[in-house]
Amino acid sequence: MDSFLRWAVVAAAMLSAGVTASAQSSFPSKPVHIFVPYAAGGGVDILARTLGDVVSKQWGQSVVVENRPGAGGLVASQALVASPPDGYTLIVVASGHATNPLLHPKIPYDTFKDFTPISLLGSSPNILLVRADSPFKSLGDMIAQARAKPGSLSFAYAGTGTSTHLAGELLKNLAKIDLNAVPYRGGAPAINDLLGGQVAMSFNNGPESIPQLEAGTVRALAVTTASRASLLPNVPSMSETVPGYDTEVWWGLLGPAGMPADLVAKLSQDFVAALNTDAVKARLAKLGASPIGSSPKAFDAKIRADYEKWAPIVKAAGMKAE
Question: Which residues form the signal peptide (predicted)?
Answer without folding.
Answer: 1-23
